[in-house]
Amino acid sequence: MSSVRAASAASGIIEINGLRKTYRSGTLETPVLRDVSMTFARGSFSAIVGPSGCGKTTLLSLLGALDVADQGVARVDGLDLVTATAVQLTQYRRLSIGFVFQFYNLLPSLTAVENVESSLEFLPMTPKQRRTRAMDYLARVGLADSGPKFPAQLSGGQQQRVAVARALAREPKLLLADEPTGNLDQETGERVFEVMRDLQREVGVTCVMVTHDAQLASRADTVVRLLDGRVVEPPAPAQSDARALVGT
């Protein structure tokens, strides 16, 4: 049995079985995911790699309930995202998921601390509690003094660290990161990755990261490679030669 499928149902927070997704435009059909199956253990850090167009971002979108699969099972902490109701999916997105995107997606009119606070709006917290937690997570990513600054006053690496703080401040069950270092130079990307990895370990959140960076992927707990919408078996262990993990 492959390493990503070895975790039992009891320990696995993510259980994917026979997942399919096809995009349609008129009579044109483009299969993106074809019978994808895998399991990720609670508290693990996993990297999804593969060439462009192989289905990595689509898989992340399905796990984040930004899209719905055509067929199969995508169960996160007991909730099947394929059969869940619209109300369940909305609640799931609000309370269970944190997102980190390639281009930060910070609101330019809000300060760093206000951007982090924006992720806490749907939680039962007072304004004072939101501000305290937002400042705490900015401190955790090394930006304790940057709360009053606007995104335009921050470097790219600092903006991405604010994005990491925003995603984790809501203390989600699952952190989804889509090319979190793809818009950064190598040195800055390394620093952002270390901040995200250290904080993920500290708070115990399960993380799934899509990346083209083979060196970063090699430092995940588990590396899964997708090719033409399918999982390449057996999944590459994170300790293997990183150059072999990512397609051109």
Structure description:
The protein is α/β, with parallel strands linked by helices. Helix content is 30%, strand content 25%. The chain has 7 helices and 10 strands. The protein has helices at 56-63, 86-95, 112-118, 127-140, 156-169, 186-203, 214-217; strands at 12-25, 28-41, 45-49, 71-76, 79-80, 97-100, 174-178, 206-210, 222-227, 230-231. The strands form 2 sheets. It has a 6-stranded mixed β-sheet. The protein has a 4-stranded antiparallel β-sheet with strand order 2-1-4-5, covered by helices on one side. α3 runs parallel beside α5 and α4 (127-140) crosses α5 (156-169). The protein is globular and about 50 Å long. 45% of the residues are buried.
Largest sheet entry: 6 strands, mixed
The helix/strand series, from N terminus to C terminus, equals: EEEHEEHEHHHEHEHEE
Span between N and C termini? 28 Å
Number of helices: 7
Report strand %: 25-35%
Question: What fraction, in percent, of the residue positions are helical?
Answer: 25-40%
The secondary-structure class comes to alpha/beta
Residue windows where pLDDT falls under 50 for at least 5 positions: 1-10, 240-248
What average pLDDT do the residues reach? 88
